[in-house]
From TrEMBL:
Domain Laminin residues, every copy: 5-115
Keyword annotations from UniProtKB, A to Z: Coiled coil
Signal peptide span: none
Name assigned to this protein: Laminin_II domain-containing protein
Superkingdom field: Eukaryota
Listed InterPro entries: Laminin_dom_II
Xref: Pfam families: Laminin_II
Record carries keyword Phosphoprotein: no
Listed GO biological process terms: cell adhesion
Coiled-coil zones: 1-109
Gene3D superfamilies reported for this sequence: 2.60.120.200
Length: 203
């Protein structure tokens, strides 16, 4: 990156130098133009001398313009290199962010033995709890519509889909939906939840 900054600084310095030289040539040409106007009535030898000076100044001006063009071309090449480097840095930042997200999904805990010595332990997702228990007290009305009873979910990331567990009442049956990393699943309880009259309720 410092190399590109040095190249850009050198290009800027060359451009300023060429611009200053061009300004000096403009002043010199204006001065000679005034001299030509004054020499219109003089001898032809003096006019030829002024003409030669003007020709030399014109050649120097063309050389200066050539240098300006070369500096612009080099500056364009440097600009393309800077843009390409910026894109590579952006790609590297994305890869670092993705690696951090993947690393955050690895669960590591600190455990200690009887002697009080701590050690790091990796909690493998292959040994999770075999089941989850949810207890909901639910009493439907006489004409209850289908409705969502319970929902918990995680925020989706670029490298990981959103995980969720949801329970709903559909046609008076409990339906559970979940996705905890192995795809979306669904199970329906075949038991129908019927309306219980107030006189028949025990609780």
């Amino acid at each position: 990156m410092s190399g590109l900054k040095n190249v850009a600084a050198n290009a800027k310095e060359q451009a300023e130098e060429v611009n200053q030289k061009a300004q000096e040539l403009i002043v010199e040409i204006n001065t000679m133009s005034d001299a030509v106007s004054k020499l219109k009535g003089f001898a032809g030898e003096g006019i030829r001398n002024v003409t030669n000076d003007v020709r030399e100044a014109n050649e120097e001006a063309q050389e200066a313009m050539k240098k300006v063009s070369e500096v612009k071309e080099q500056t364009g090449v440097d600009a393309k290199r800077i843009v390409a480097l910026g894109e590579q840095i952006k790609l590297l930042q994305e890869k670092i962010k993705e690696a951090r997200e993947k690393a955050s999904r690895i669960r590591i805990s600190m455990k200690s033995d009887d002697a009080g010595v701590c050690r790091r332990a990796f909690v493998s997702p292959a040994h999770l709890a075999p089941r989850n228990v949810f207890a909901l007290r639910y009493r439907p009305l006489l004409n209850v519509p289908d409705s969502l009873l319970f929902l918990t979910k995680t925020k989706a990331k670029r490298t990981q889909e959103s995980e969720f567990i949801a329970m709903e009442l559909r046609e008076r049956r409990i339906v559970v939906h979940w996705n905890i990393g192995s795809g979306t699943r669904m199970v329906t309880n075949t038991h129908t939840i019927n309306y219980i009259a107030p006189g028949d309720r025990t609780a």
